[in-house]
């Protein structure tokens, strides 16, 4: 059976610390996403020891040995040899027919692997990764049985959020483009991501209903609090999708308006935008409109009322997120301050005790000196 995780170490880098050390960038490709984990040789050495301790057997390929008279920082050839050796070491474990090393907690912790990525070994036909891949690649055919698994539901929701993120990026790119063909391409990609996200939100809602109705028949029943939390996630996701669709529609309306203005004759433009008072002053009498623009920015000047409203909502949402992040930082600083205060109190108490002991010792020394004086 082919491994569900592809592992490679394509490159290395030197850390900015002093003294520097070599960092090995491990690339992992799962059925649905890819990510990179950075480790140094000492991490590999500790992982190797934990792996042998947990499995009571050495891995199929030995770990490249430590060199005492050369280092990977200054020797590029040695660094490349060690990179290949570490890559073969991980790939041998990943592709071995014996799965005891892959099933260990040391393996998952070292590579930051989710449980679903390693639970698929053994040839199970309905494993989580396979079902999730089928649900995401063809969301229109995803039935309740495909996404009523609690873990599968969260992975499916994570992929849906990535489509919303892609749509937001495409809309931002479309707003920055000046070439009509590029704008159309970005709009089409954003629309595709939004349609896919909408279908996935519907499937998630149906799956959540299935989770709510399974009750005692489910082997992993969700509590009422978790069900409410997931409902809130879907509500926020649908609001985000609707807001992005409104923004896309506002951009499309603006494009159509610009095209219509470009195709108008000079006389029609004077009627719409006003005419110049005279050839000397060059002032233009603006045409009446239902919206008073005033002192607007370049972004709001190009949007209609619906677009400005959506932009304001988005700006307020970004500000709320910034405030939440600032609140987390402030709370963390407060916790650090309290911890420092408690530590200072402990140190002050220790200093006070030391002063008392010093006073007692001084008193005893004085008594001893007096007795020595009497004897002498």
TrEMBL record:
InterPro entries: PX_dom (IPR001683), PX_dom_sf (IPR036871), T_SNARE_dom (IPR000727)
Coiled coil: none
Location of region: Disordered: 173-194, 206-230
Compositional bias (Polar residues): 213-222
TM ranges: none
SMART domains: PX (SM00312), t_SNARE (SM00397)
Keyword entries, A-Z: Coiled coil, Vacuole
Domain PX: residue ranges: 1-117
Gene Ontology terms, MF aspect: phosphatidylinositol binding
Pfam families assigned to the protein according to its UniProt record, in alphabetical order: PX
GO biological process per UniProt: vacuolar transport; vacuole fusion; vesicle-mediated transport
Biased composition (Basic and acidic residues): 173-185
Domain T-SNARE coiled-coil homology residues, every copy: 313-375
GO cellular component: fungal-type vacuole membrane
The keyword Coiled coil is annotated on this UniProt entry: yes
Superkingdom assignment: Eukaryota
Principal cellular location given in the protein's record: other
Subcellular location(s) per record: Vacuole
Protein function: Essential for proper morphogenesis of the vacuole. May exist as structural reinforcement on the surface of the vacuolar membrane and be required for maintenance against rupture by osmotic pressure.
Protein name in the entry: PX domain-containing protein
Organism: Penicillium steckii
Lineage, highest ranks first: Eukaryota, Fungi, Dikarya, Ascomycota, Pezizomycotina
């Amino acid at each position: 059976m082919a491994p569900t995780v592809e592992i490679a170490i394509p490159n290395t880098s030197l850390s900015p610390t002093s003294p520097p050390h070599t960092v090995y960038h491990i690339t992992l490709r799962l059925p649905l996403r890819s990510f990179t984990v950075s480790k140094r040789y000492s991490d590999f050495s500790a992982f190797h020891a934990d792996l042998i301790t947990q499995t009571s057997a050495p891995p199929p390929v030995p770990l490249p040995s430590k060199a005492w008279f050369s280092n990977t920082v200054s020797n590029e050839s040695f660094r490349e040899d060690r990179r290949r050796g570490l890559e073969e070491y991980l790939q041998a474990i990943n592709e071995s027919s014996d799965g005891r090393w892959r099933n260990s907690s040391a393996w998952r912790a070292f590579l930051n692997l989710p449980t679903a990525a390693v639970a698929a070994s053994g040839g199970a036909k309905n494993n989580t990764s396979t079902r999730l891949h089928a649900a995401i690649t063809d969301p229109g055919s995803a039935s309740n049985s495909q996404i009523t698994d609690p873990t599968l539901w969260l992975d499916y929701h994570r992929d849906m959020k990535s489509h919303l993120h892609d749509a937001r990026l495409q809309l931002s790119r479309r707003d920055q483009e000046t070439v009509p063909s590029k704008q159309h391409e970005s709009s089409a990609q954003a629309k595709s991501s939004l349609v896919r996200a909408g279908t996935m939100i519907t499937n998630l809602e149906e799956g959540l209903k299935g989770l709510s109705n399974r009750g005692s028949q489910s082997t992993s029943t969700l509590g009422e609090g978790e069900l409410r939390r997931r409902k809130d996630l879907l509500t926020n996701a649908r609001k985000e999708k609707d807001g992005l669709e409104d923004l896309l529609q506002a951009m499309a309306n603006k494009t159509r308006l610009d095209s219509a203005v470009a195709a108008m004759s000079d006389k029609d433009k004077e009627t719409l935008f006003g005419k110049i008072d005279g050839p000397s002053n060059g002032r233009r009498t603006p045409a009446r409109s239902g919206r008073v623009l005033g002192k607007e920015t370049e972004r709001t000047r190009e949007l209609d009322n619906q677009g400005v409203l959506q932009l304001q909502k988005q700006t307020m949402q970004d500000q709320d997120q910034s405030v939440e992040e600032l609140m987390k930082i402030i709370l963390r600083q407060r916790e650090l301050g309290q911890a420092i205060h408690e530590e200072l109190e402990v140190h002050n108490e220790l200093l006070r005790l030391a002063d008392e002991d010093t006073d007692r010792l001084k008193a005893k020394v004085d008594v001893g000196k007096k007795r020595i004086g009497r004897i002498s």
